[in-house]
Amino acid sequence: MARLPVVISLDPPKDKGWDWALGIAEEMKDLVVAFKVGWPLLLEGKEKLGTLREMAPVVLDLKLADISFTMINIIRRLEFDAVIAHAFVGREKALRELREELNKQDKELYLVVAMSHKGADELLNRMWRENVLIAYELADGIVAPATRPELLVKIRKVWPRKVLSPGVGVQGARPCSAVKLGADAEIIGRTVTRNPSPREYLLRLYSGCKA
Amino acid sequence: MARLPVVISLDPPKDKGWDWALGIAEEMKDLVVAFKVGWPLLLEGKEKLGTLREMAPVVLDLKLADISFTMINIIRRLEFDAVIAHAFVGREKALRELREELNKQDKELYLVVAMSHKGADELLNRMWRENVLIAYELADGIVAPATRPELLVKIRKVWPRKVLSPGVGVQGARPCSAVKLGADAEIIGRTVTRNPSPREYLLRLYSGCKA
């Protein structure tokens, strides 16, 4: 069976950690293209990243937005396949050096060019063109929101590589809506991971959805 | 003795962690206004934050730049006195809800309005006015770079609350230069923490420097 165009976000509830995450992952590993791990789970330890990578590729959603020295200091402590950073921090002494480090490690870089929440429209999403230009030079893929379908279409027209799209489910976009507009995969978290039957629910939400 | 207008950044070298950080902190705790802890140290565990807070206030430099759900999910797992986030992610469903959570916990929020590295001039530092306006509504203090003295002066003229200034030392700005331009404290890391006699070196760098 082909995998669903879905990246499962493994952000645990406040009182949960890696046991919760690995349980969900075990249930989904044959269905999805990757697992997304963020800071909440990493704060419960980084030792299980290798175990998770054996199930599916791991995208670290660190939303890195710092100087190169610090970003590199962070990623050298972690196991992963791809990492998400913010395009807006710019190239020199930031993303360019991060890219060089990722090249050495043979890992992927995704850059956030726009976000899914309402406040993103104040500043960040107004800069999407500049962010895409930075991504052109440095990124394997971008992150662009399912909650802004018109923006997603504009971005897809000018961006030839991978697009991951968050904002599906709790945040308001419908499952498969971003994939239909050209995203390679949708990032989905709470909607599925808090469901009592996550595997069945995911299969139902994405039945007939193709990237 | 009055404390120096300095926040010490406890980002450890790749092969070091909390033993290194607590050793530096023990040596400096009577001299500085706070310690800054970032993701590299947190990836070595979060259990020692309480121990560090007994020495001096702890500013978590997480450069948060995510939706409110995730930012709150992160900070609820940590002990701290103040946290640094990025202004550019905007208010609704992001910084506004983060502020509300910090109010409940009686903790401070610092927002990055401009950064110290060269790439910051591409996008982020062009938005400093908009970032300051967001900070007006939501922040106890801001983070603005010592490496851009002209910008720092402009920001200080329109920003009445606290200013923390990174970029001193390795990144190029001279110790005390930002304090002289109105910053409340300078953030300094590697220059001091990698020195063989960090306490003596810090005292020498900041002799005669007053906020």
UniProtKB/TrEMBL annotation, chains A, B:
A matching Pfam family: OMPdecase
Q: Which CDD domains match?
A: OMP_decarboxylase_like (cd04725)
- Its domain of life reads Archaea
Active-site residues per Swiss-Prot or TrEMBL entry: 61 (for ompdecase activity), 63 (for ompdecase activity), 66 (for ompdecase activity)
Q: Write out the GO MF terms.
A: orotidine-5'-phosphate decarboxylase activity
Pathway linked to the protein: Pyrimidine metabolism; UMP biosynthesis via de novo pathway; UMP from orotate: step 2/2
Lyase is among the record's keywords: yes
Identify the EC number(s).
4.1.1.23
By its UniProt entry, which InterPro entries does this protein fall under?
Answer: Aldolase_TIM (IPR013785), OMPdecase (IPR014732), OMPdeCOase_dom (IPR001754), RibuloseP-bd_barrel (IPR011060)
Orotidine 5'-phosphate decarboxylase domain mapped to chain residues: 5-205
Q: Which positions does UniProt annotate for substrate binding?
A: 11, 36, 116, 189-190
Q: Which GO terms describe its biological process?
A: 'de novo' pyrimidine nucleobase biosynthetic process; 'de novo' UMP biosynthetic process
Alphabetically sorted, this entry's keywords are: Decarboxylase, Lyase, Pyrimidine biosynthesis
Q: Which GO terms describe its cellular component?
A: cytosol
Known PANTHER family for this protein?
OROTIDINE 5'-PHOSPHATE DECARBOXYLASE
Protein name from the UniProt record: Orotidine 5'-phosphate decarboxylase
Q: Which organism is it from?
A: Ignicoccus hospitalis (strain KIN4/I / DSM 18386 / JCM 14125)
